[in-house]
Amino acid sequence: MLTDVKRTPGEKAFDWLNLIIVLVIxxxxxxxLVFVLFASMSDPRKMFDSPLLFWPKGFNLDxxxxxxxxxxxxxxxxxxxxxxxxxxxxxxxxxxFGAYPLxxxxxxxxxxxxxxxxxxxxxxxxxxPSYLVNQQLGxxxxxxxxxxxxxxxxxxxxxxxxxxxxxxxxxxxxxAYVDGCNDYxxxxxxxxxxxxxxxxxxxxxxxxxxxNSYFEAMIYMSDRGQYPLQLILREILIKNEFKDMLGIAVDxxxxxxxxxxxxxxxxxxxxxxxxxxxxxxxxxxFFEKGILVxxxxx
Length: 298
Prior knowledge:
This protein is mainly α. The protein contains 15 helices and no strands. It has 2 domains: 1-60, no CATH class; 61-295, MetI-like fold. Helix 1 packs across helix 15. The radius of gyration is 25 Å and the shape is globular. It starts with 8 loop residues before the first helix and ends with a helix.
């Protein structure tokens, strides 16, 4: 019969020390997010009284009202949702179609193709050749320049290939062929339903990448009506373009507008990050399983 093992005072002290360290690290990681959230809901004039915020000071949602009244924010939101949805769909389709053949032993030349995909992780053509290629293709200043050049991530492709290798048994594939399945039906009816964890992880990876991307749009987009949200956010946070929100006249109320601008910055950050904060908990249950199984070949 098993009996409880008494822990020594040293072991208990070690556990408490670990707990304290974990709590401190958790606080350091979460506080910037909490600070931005509370700052966006605080009275901007009271934020300067104390540099640290542990709760909203002078609860105020005027910054959010001002943000949502700005047409550029809504325009950027619509563009980003479109780019993220279309781009992630293309990414998942291309990654699945690339990873599944590379995971099958009977695919001739898979070693060569895997090497070619891996080669792109270390060597690239550079920004200017990429721009010239996209210009020759006629996709500059269109949505497709943001979603087609990066249709496949070699890193994600290798993770998904490893998942297919370890989680889709060859016996299951052989029995499906005996029952009359072809390659496409096997992929659609059997492989994809069994690959929900890794697909959810890829959706999260690709979706976050598209949502946070701004550099490609800054390089390839000249039509402001097609700017994604992150480029609008960059203008607000870095270039301080609040002309439509606050006006630019320097008068007796100029100082008040500059104070309000600080609250607007935090509100814009919260608004732009909110969809990802909602998406991650929905996919988190698949995240650990998909990453561990897809990254480790056993």
